[in-house]
Structure prediction request, 444 residues.
Amino acid sequence: MSRTDIQSDSFEDLAMPLFDQLYNFAHWLTRNRDEAEDLVQETYVKALRGFSSFQLGTNFRAWMYRILRNTFLTSRTGLKATMTVPLDLEQDGTDLPVDSVTPETIFIERSNTQLMRSTIDELPVYYREILLLCDVEEMSYQEISETLSIPIGTVMSRLSRARRTLRERLRLQFQEGPRPLSAAVASGINYGL
Amino acid sequence: MDCDSWTAKLDTYLDGEFPSEEMRAFDAHVHSCSSCAADSLARLQMKRSVQAAGRRFTPTSNFRQRVERSIAIKPRSSFGVRWMFAAALSILVVASLLATYLGVQRSRRGQVYGEIADLHVAALASSSRVDVVSSDRHTVKPWFQGKIPFAFDLPELQNSEFSLLGGRMTYLDQTPGAHLIYAVRKHEISVFIFQEATLRGKWDERSPVTRELSFSMETWSQGGLRYCVVGDAAATDINSLAELLKSASSS
Prediction:
């Protein structure tokens, strides 16, 4: 089958199964339904136009996510979201040991999905996106590397910092939240995070 | 290796990103270390919580349809359709031109055959059918010297049913030619001979034997001359005379 033959039909076949997850990711980035729709629509149009440059056999999902992310970064919302980047973003952090009673376990116990969502939502975009790509989209480090156009070593360090930041913010949420924390839980948080 | 060293790599382990050998080493350690096992469980639960919380937004069906429509307008496809339309139009134009050309050619050929038949009928209807009256081919052939710009050979008719009645000058499409009249039983057959070069393209080489207005007609090109045998005799008689003429010309 020639490249011309597969062009349009193949694109639809490959791209539409990613529609829901691309929209979810776009909404997390933009934090707005209308902007997410615009972003996804623009992504699909750009991808269709550029499909001839896509190397068949390479990772189509990473290619689509990269287009979406690059489109977002050049949008007004994206530029605003990435204006402030911490200087130590790519520095390796050292994970502290965590106790058996941690914010994670508390979260599971309380099933506070809403709190988790709001905490993720407040993360800087460079942490939010890598966390979503790894844990929600279940991308490998290699795929994340291709999507974000960064080395795998940077993927690992940024992911580690994203998770640590998430834990710290969860701890703050519990400390400041209206619900009383048990002594054991408070102890675990103070010790572990 | 102390637990801190394992802990630093725990997320990578839980993401399944280590080579299989290192994964097995981690498995062994986590099974033997209660602290790391608890830490792994907590981080895994956190990972699952992020996953559950992350699957949050769902596109509307209207939006999905809008995007599907936007990518269904395929530039390359419409480009292809335009090309197909252009190709079909080109084929149609070429076919029309070809049909017109073939029609004109057929019409011209039909016109020539009609004219040959007219010459045959006109000669037979004339009070002086031939200008040179002789059954001797050695008399008839020399009669055309100086009258037509070519020479031809006539067959010996002994032991055949045919007899030569004579000959006359004729013209077709402003080209001079020889008109010979033969008899077979009670039928009279005309033999027309013209220069092929001046009448090129007016004959259908694929069907040298035709019937026009119930006249049988056979035509062929030989030695730069166009021969045309026409008459109301049977097609076999026309063909027999044609064969005699062909033999005479090739001998």
